[in-house]
Amino acid sequence: MTTTSSAVLLDIHTSALAGMGSLPRTFASWARLAAEVYPDADLSEELFRSSLLNGDEALIALWNRHLTAWDFAENPPWGGTTPARTDERRAVIYEHLGFGSDVCKGLDQAMPVAKVPGATVITREFTPWYTAERAAARNFYWTAYERKLREKGWSEAAIASLDQASKAVVERLTDPEQPTARQAKGLVVGYVQSGKTANFTGVAAKAIDAGYRLVIVLGGTLNLLRAQTQRRLDMELIGQENILRGADVTDVDSLVGVDYVGEDEGWPEFVRHGGRPSMLGAFDIERLTTHDKDYKSLDQGIRALEIDKRVPTAPLYDPSNLHHAAARILVVKKNKSVLTKLVKDLKQIHGSLGDVPALIIDDESDQASVNTSDPKKWERGSTERTAINGLISKLLGLLPRAQYVGYTATPFANVFIDPGDDMDLFPSDFLISLPRPAGYMGVQDFHDLNSPVPVSQRTYANSREKAHVRGIYESTGDRLQEAMDAFVLSGALKLYRADHGVPNVAFRHHTMLAHQSVRQDDHADLALRINTMWHQAGYSSTAGHERLAALWEADFAPVSAAQADDLPSPRFYEELRPYVHAARQRIGSGGQPVIVVNGDTDRYFAQLDLDFDRTPIWKILVGGTKLSRGFTVEGLTVTYYRRTTQQADTLMQMGRWFGFRPGYRDLVRLYIGREEPFGRDKSVDLYEAYEGVCRDEETFREQLAQYAELVDGKPQVTPVQIPPLVAQHLPWLKPSARNKMFNAELVEIRSPGRPIEPASYPHTGSVTKRNAERWRPLLHALGPERVPFNNPPDSSSPLSRSFTALTGTVTHGDLLSVLRNLEWERPRYFYPHLTYLQQLDGTLARVDDWLLISPLLASDNRIDVSILGSAPLSLVRRSIQDGKSSFGRIASVEHRTAAQRLIDEAAAGGSTLIGPRTGVALLYPVVEGRTPESVQTAVHNGVADPSKVVMAFTLIPPRSATSGDRRLVRFRARNSRHEGEATIPSESSS
Asked: How many C-beta atoms lie closer than 10 Å to residue 38's C-beta?
């Protein structure tokens, strides 16, 4: 029987694995070296396997750390062709370690491969410099951050995923030791409230370790958001010793000007390095901003930006200087005044800035940073920039070795930036899409996307919508009281769980968000109403408890049983009753259950006392835009959302109900408007809108994955060559705001079962005549017989309406041959529709043929004439719209209604005239004019003059003319370097 203790075995394995470095090597050899101080130690595989099977936690944690790091390594030289995070990779690791099958089985059982997706990367070719050896040689701050993440409870798989994702960013920056100055620009795309801050903290740690000596983090547009980011970096990266800078925590006088100490209850949780980093063989980090203070333009600030050199005659980027100099970190608001001060100070020390490797991290990079000025209004040859965009460009101009990395969950505005503007922020070097983290609740967790389960068979167990979403319809009333009851009930359940073994840290905050309008007056009204309802809810009365008990039995009990049967849950409402009382007291503390969050100034937010870092918050938050982008609502459990918008990125950022919900995922409820007023006489389904945004996001990430695949080890495309395409699934919901889409080019419009009606036809007679000639084959396909069409009574009219028309049938190819060659008033005007129609040859879907309908007018003074030898057609008068170059509507309401009915009936299998793969084309010979007499001018000797007759049309493809992804619209970014060139070939179907 072995006498080797678990402590000795752990020491040997720790030393052996440390000796290997970043490579898996023959373990037995390294174990023998490590065991020299333990000559009698048992190094057999039998003891190792036995320790694994007996659950030696320390040994398992050690091996889990190393195996997971090797599992996740992207393209390591020792890994051959094996993909990361696969059984094949694990087998290669075991082969290098030289383990027998029994140990391999024991390790697999104790720590199976985490088969999670990695980051998706689009990149231009770059010079590899951030090797495993170089990263391991200087990793002081990354190691400290990694250790902090383990303390916070991160799994080894999550840490390894972050390690690889942050490495993917850092290795694409320029080598800070490189003599030649070069800037790289990139974009990292995460999910809303999914841990992007963790990624850029990791990037900052690795970049600083590698030699970047000035880090500027652009952290939001309000000090509240900036302070959140500052505290996070201070706590998890910079650490206590760098904050204290030698101050004694027991000496009050020495703590003047030092933040956190004695004020922040989380201070003990801040990273501790074990001494000043500069005394431990590393280097210090100097903060030029603090939790409460943004960048100030002061003399000491200027001096702080000047970096001392150990070897004065060598440049700062020389390793002899670089790795001994302290790093500087600033977390600044995207504020004109603040950034102007920083630019001004940097200009004063401009002489030495050319040597400083700098990193600019732009959090929420699609907010404020994007140039929203209209290019059409610029003076010829110049570029006008909005304030923040211009100041970031100036920073990059002053820091020739600066790298720019943007972070966002809604990247559409960023990829619409002009790639040809070198001074702008287009991510020309790399685009990285972060994987969806484990435990994250995103759009997909509230929708049954592509669910194979029929709607009638969906339950709390198999339907995310049924589990978490509560629709607000006209028939349901506003459900606000129910939402408040759900908030109280879920708070009680959190307290119950905390009392029954669930870690209480997850329940420190408990919040409800009410977001109904952008207007501050509406916020005040809603807050008053909620306050009134709260005091009238009777949560301590019999009626109140009966209402909560009913909601518990009908909603929370069955959902929790289906979604979280591993978490403690009361058997009866009576067990929950005392926790309801405690939850009510917490929420109503101070007499106000509601906090209104809608101010525009830092002073306003300072008065709110809404600091999740320092104070437990159990409140109902009412607000609008300020409760969206960048603002993390901790503990959010119930959301009441009814605000409409026409921008997909705005809608996505308002999805504060996305995030991590440990220990209460099953309690999350979304009360959302399904019939919200929109415009004068329309309504929109906000739940459907989020589903559309989800599909847009999925399509974007699919595009990235498609482009990311390497061919012969090289990227197929770079971000500049083919900017990622952005999709739009709902016609009324644009990807981004209009002023962020000046460089957005419409690539494709898909219209299955919907009318396509171009209205901007050429005005030149010669062009009009050429177009008419192109229509000649199809005009001859119209038969001479008049075919009747009838529209039965409907909501628009109680009467039946009829008309006659000439009809004919042509193949899809015949129609395309005409459409491809038409000329338009504006170049590429019809291109997005044509891109779609060209794919209906079976590439996207199949359309067999088209029914041509040329309506005949019913009026007595109509003019029927032959056009280029066709059967007589009715000339139609249309006028150019005032101030525009296009007609108004081409097709009449009756004609379009009849055509749409044919398409709809065919889709339902009830049409006798066309099949489900036949489209309808309404064809009109149009004469431009405002009076009936103007039509006569287009006729000579009973024949139409083709130079005066515009062959206008309305197309309605069959409903089947689409793909499974339901994508309707795609955009791309224009590149000013290639103005006028087609960046995607017309036959592209991607």
From this structure: 15
Residue 667's nearest CA partner among 512, 490, 509 is 490
| Residue from 120, 118, 319, 124 nearest 722 by CA | 124
The model's pLDDT over 706-731, given as tens digits with 9 standing for 90+, comes to 667 766 677 666 676 555 556 555 56
Hey, what are 618's tokens? 């159990």
Q: Tell me the per-residue pLDDT of 4-57, one tens digit each, with 9 for 90 and over.
A: 899 999 999 999 999 998 899 999 999 999 999 999 999 999 999 999 999 999
How far are the Cα atoms of 676, 733, 824, 981 from residue 828, in angstroms, in the given order? 36, 23, 8, 11
Place of tokens 């410099």: 129
SS3 call for 409 = coil
User: Which residues, at least 6 apart from 970, have a Cβ–Cβ distance to it below 8 Å?
Assistant: 725, 726, 727, 728, 746, 747, 748
| φ and ψ at residue 76, rounded to 5 degrees | -70, 150
For 813, the token pair is 């190819």
Residues of the chain with pLDDT under 70: 1-2, 297-304, 350-351, 374-383, 420, 518, 599-609, 624-631, 646-655, 703, 706-707, 710-712, 715-718, 720-745, 795-796, 881-885, 965-966, 969, 971, 973-990
User: What span, in angstroms and rounded, lies between the C-alpha atoms of 415 and 427?
Assistant: 8
> CA 334 to CA 392: how far, in whole Å?
9
DSSP, residue by residue, 43-100: --HHHHHHHHHTT-HHHHHHHHHHHHHHHH-SS-TTSTTPPTTSHHHHHHHHHHHT--
The H or E element spanning position 407 is: strand 402-408
Contact partners, residue 847, CB within 8 Å, separation at least 6: 812, 840, 841, 917, 918, 919, 957, 958, 961
Is pTM beyond 0.85? Reply is no
Question: And the tokens for 351?
Answer: 């002489």
What tokens were used for 430?
Answer: 């790399």
Number of Cβ atoms within 10 Å of the Cβ of 678: 17
Contact status, residue 969 vs residue 750, Cβ threshold 8 Å: yes
DSSP 8-state code for residue 556: I
